[in-house]
Amino acid sequence: MNKTIQKTAAEIFAECKSGFRLKELKCGEGAQIKRLAGFEDCQPGDLVFITDAKKVAETLAKKPAGVVVGVKEAEAIAADAAMAVFVSENAGVSYAVMRQKYSDRDYTESGFGRIHPSAVIHESVKIPESTMIGPNVVIERGAKIGEKCVLQANVVIEFEAEIGDGTVIQPGSMVGFQCKIGKNCLILPNSVIGSEGFGYSQDEDFNHYRIPQTGNVEIGERVTIGALNAIDRGTFGVTKFHDNVICDNICHTAHNCEIGEHSILLTGWKMTGSSKTGKRVIASGDTMVKDHVSICDDTIFVHRGGVITDITEKGMYAGSPTQPMREYVKNLSVYQKLGEMQKEVKELKKQLAALMPATAAK
């Protein structure tokens, strides 16, 4: 689905002056913009975002109605009154926020009306007029639901949980009792926020005794939780995701963990209990973090990082257990030559045996 816009370039620039990172409309104020498009499949009438300088000539050849480019790319484009050239401080950011404005999915277009008759909502819960509740949603006693929220089919909000303004929770997801979700969050399908933390004690016969997990989860503002995520509630305190964290699909964060703001957690992320990340941590796929570990700000993990001790210096780390990137690359290079080195060692042993037969005999 690609929504039509039907606006002039001048109208779009006027609407996007604040928060869209646009510096100027270089030319083509009267160009008619029909839709937003990527450079791969653009056509006349489209407004195209170019974030790769190598794609400028290819895109212009397709004769779109306008382009959004960075400052350097704009300098290379001749002024053309027929084509709009939006100059951006950051074309990638402009791309994201302009798409949100003009071509994002409208989560209110379910066709079911404001509150579906199959929803089960406790009498103590007030649903704002601006909020929509889908089929088979369950909202328990004392829950608080903000303005302009959308709870899609089969969402469960347990007792005394709080959902902030503008948050969208997609089908099949659950928010556990007394958990808090901030404003403008997006929770994708079949995720569990505030599931039971994995806490057990064992006796001398290795019988398991469940430790009740009675803390909660607090999610900050503008957080995305991907599909099939599990975020465990704290044993006593809080499991916390700070503002503007984005979490990919199929991730698990255990009880009493803390994720610093602006962090990125990719598919397969696993963090065990009572560990903590700083701000702007990037964890590539299948990163795993041991319990009671602390990770400093501005740390990046690649190649299935396995974190077993505190990370106290920012930088890029790789492998399991994690190593600074420079050491990892050096050690990986040696590892890849182990077969060749083994042959060389065997050959050296033979030569040594020939030179020292008595020693070899022993």
What do you see in this structure?
The protein has 362 residues and is of the alpha/beta class. The chain is built from seven helices and 38 strands. The chain folds into two domains: 7-103, MurE/MurF, N-terminal domain (Udp-n-acetylmuramoylalanyl-d-glutamate--2,6- Diaminopimelate Ligase, Chain: A, domain 1, 3-Layer(aba) Sandwich), CATH 3.40.1390; 120-327, Hexapeptide repeat proteins (UDP N-Acetylglucosamine Acyltransferase, domain 1). Strand 6, helix 3 (71-75) and strand 7 (84-88) form a beta-alpha-beta unit. The radius of gyration is 27 Å and the shape is flat. The mean pLDDT is 93.
Provide a compact summary of the structure.
This protein has 362 residues and is of the alpha/beta class. The protein is built from seven helices and 38 strands. It folds into two domains: 97 residues, MurE/MurF, N-terminal domain (Udp-n-acetylmuramoylalanyl-d-glutamate--2,6- Diaminopimelate Ligase, Chain: A, domain 1); 208 residues, Hexapeptide repeat proteins (UDP N-Acetylglucosamine Acyltransferase, domain 1).
Number of strands: 38
Q: What class, by secondary structure content?
A: alpha/beta
Radius of gyration: 27 Å
**Residues in helix, %:** 10-25%
What is the strand content? 25-35%
Summarize model confidence as the mean pLDDT: 93
Largest sheet: number of strands, sense, barrel closure = 11 strands, mixed
